[in-house]
Amino acid sequence: MTSPPPDSRPRTLLGIASLAIALAAADTYVVVLALTEMMQGVGIGIESLQRATPIISGFLLGYVAVLPLIGRLADLLDKQRVLLGCLAIFVVGSAVTALASDLTVLVAGRVVQGVGGGGLVPATLAIVAARWPAETRGLPLGVVGAVQELGSVLGPVLGAAILLVSDWRAIFWLNALAGIVLAGAIWWTSALRPTGSWRTVGIWGTALGLLWLALAAPDALATSVSLGAPFVPIGSSDARLATPIGLLALAVVIGATGWSIRRGWSWLRQAGPFGAAMLGSALGCVIVTFAAAQPEREIVGPLGYALLPVAAACTLAYAVHHRRSANPVIPHGVVRGTTAWALAVSFCAGAALVAVVVNIPLLARLVHTTDEAEAAFVLLRFLIAVPLGALLGGWAVRHTGDGIVAGIGMGCAALGLALMTAWGRGAFATAGSWFVLALTGLGIGLALAPVNNAALSAVRADAHGAASALIVVSRMIGMVLGLALLTAVGLHRYYEIVAGLPDPTDTEALKSAAITQVHWVFWGASGAAALGALLSTRLGVNVRRRAAAPPRHLPAGTG
C-alpha cells in the first residue's frame, strides 16, 4: 500500500536543505574566478600558481574525507541536528577563509568549509529516505541531485557578480551569512529544542571569539601601545596565529574540540571513530595524490608516491577493523548487492562528468575561440542540462525502475561523448554541438536520482546516511581518478603524435595533436559511461516490485 504523501513541513525542510547544498556546491567552483585575487590576498604572486593548488584541493579533501563519518552520524542522531552541525562548520570555515592573511589559514578555512559542505548531502538524502516512501522519493532525490549540479553553474556566476562590486573576502562573508540564515530556517522548520549546556556554548563562544580576534587583528588593538602586545608576532613569522593571542586562540579551539568529543563520546563511539579515521585518511591520501597533480605533466601528485602506500595501509587497517567491529562506520552488509552496483555506476558517472567539465573548454579554445569566457559559455550548455536531467530522472524513477532510468541516462552520455570525438574546427558553431552537449548533460543528470534511490532502497533504514555518503564519495573519487587516468591516456596519444612530427615546432600540427588528445579523453569517458549503462541493469527494472519488497535486514557481524 502506498504511503500518504508527505506534508508541507518535510517539503519545506527539503527546500531549505537543498538551498544549503546548492550554497556548498557553488563554493566548490566559486574560487575559479577569484583564485588570483585570493593568492594576492595571502601574499602569493601569480608566478607561484602551483602553490595555490591546496586552495582548491583542500575544499575537496574536507568534502570527501569525513563523508563516511557524517553519513553514519546521520543514521545515529537526529538528522536535522546533523544538518545544523554541518552548517555551523561551514559558517566557521567561511569566516576563517574570509579572515585569512596567509596561505596556511586560507587552506585550513577551505578544508573546514569542505567538511561542513560535504556533510550536508548525506544528511539531506537520509532525510528524504526517512520522510518519503521508496515509491515516491524519486523526485525529492532528483531535487537534491539537481541542486548539487546547479552549484557548478551558480558558483562562477556568483563569484563574478561579487567581484564586480567587492573583493574576494566578500564571497566568503556572504557564505557565512547565508549559512546562518539557512540554519535558522532549519531550526524554525524542524521546531527543535535546544540541547547541550550553557558551559558548552560559553566554551565555543570564547574559542571562536578569540579566533576571530587573532585573525582579524583590529587596528585599534593591534597598533595600540598599551593593548597591542598580544598581536606582536613571535620570532620572524608574520602569521597572525603566530602571536600570543593566536596561540591562545588555537589552544582554546583545541580544548573546545576535545570538550565536545568527550561530551558526545557515547554516540560518537557508535559511529566507529577508529574506522572513520582510517577510511578518512585513505580517502584523503587519494584526493591529495590525484587532485594535487598537474594533469598536463603527471598522473600522481608530488606527494603521491608517499601517500599512496599510506592509503593502502589505512584501507587494510579499516578492512580488518570492519570485520571485527560490531559498529563500523560503514554498517555491515551495506556495500554489497544493489548498493555495490550503485556505487560502481556513481563512479562511472563521476568520470564521465569530469571529462566534459575539463575538456570541453579546452577543446573550445583549440577549435572555436581563444577567449576563456566564451569557452566557458560553451560548457554552460552542458552544465545547465545536468540539473534538468536530475529532475527528469527523479520524476521518471517514480514510473519505472532505477536500472532503466540510470541505464538510459548513462547510455545517452556514452553516445554524446562518442559523438564529441568527431569534433574539430568549427564544431561549436553548429546547432548539433548544442544538442550533443545537452544530450550528454541530460544523460548524466538522469542517472543521479536512480543511483541514490537504488542504494537507499537496498539497505535497512538505520544505514541510509552511510549509503548516501558512499554514493557521494564514489562519484567524487570517480571524478578525481577519472581526470587523472583519462588525461594520462590522452597525453600518451599526444606525445606519440608529437614524436612523429617532421617539424615539432609546427603550430597547426601541435594544435591537431592537442585536439586528438581531447578526443581520446572523450573516448575513454564514453567507455566509462557505457560501462555505467551496463552496470545499471543491476539496479532493478520494476519500481513496484522494489517498493513491495523491503530491504533485507542483515544481522550485525555479517561482512
Written account of the structure:
It is built from 21 helices and no strands. The protein is mainly alpha-helical and 559 residues long. The longest helix has 36 residues. It is globular, with a radius of gyration of 24 Å. The protein starts with 7 loop residues before the first helix and ends in an 11-residue tail after the last helix. The N terminus and C terminus are likely disordered.
The assigned structural class equals mainly alpha
Biggest β-sheet strands, sense, barrel: none
Report the total helices: 21
Name the poorly predicted regions.
1-8, 544-559
What is the ordering of alpha helices and beta strands?
HHHHHHHHHHHHHHHHHHHHH
Q: What is the strand content?
A: under 5%
Helix content: over 70%
Q: Report mean pLDDT, rounded to a whole number.
A: 84
Shape: globular
Distance between the termini: 32 Å
List keywords for this structure.
559 residues; mainly alpha; disordered N terminus
How are the SSEs ordered, and which strands pair?
Elements: H1 8-29, H2 31-41, H3 53-65, H4 67-76, H5 79-99, H6 103-131, H7 138-165, H8 168-190, H9 198-216, H10 219-222, H11 244-263, H12 265-268, H13 273-291, H14 304-324, H15 337-367, H16 372-397, H17 402-420, H18 431-457, H19 464-499, H20 507-535, H21 543-548
Summary, kept brief:
The protein is an all-alpha fold and 559 residues long. It has helices at residues 8-29, 31-41, 53-65, 67-76, 79-99, 103-131, 138-165, 168-190, 198-216, 219-222, 244-263, 265-268, 273-291, 304-324, 337-367, 372-397, 402-420, 431-457, 464-499, 507-535, 543-548. The chain starts with 7 loop residues before the first helix and ends in an 11-residue tail after the last helix.
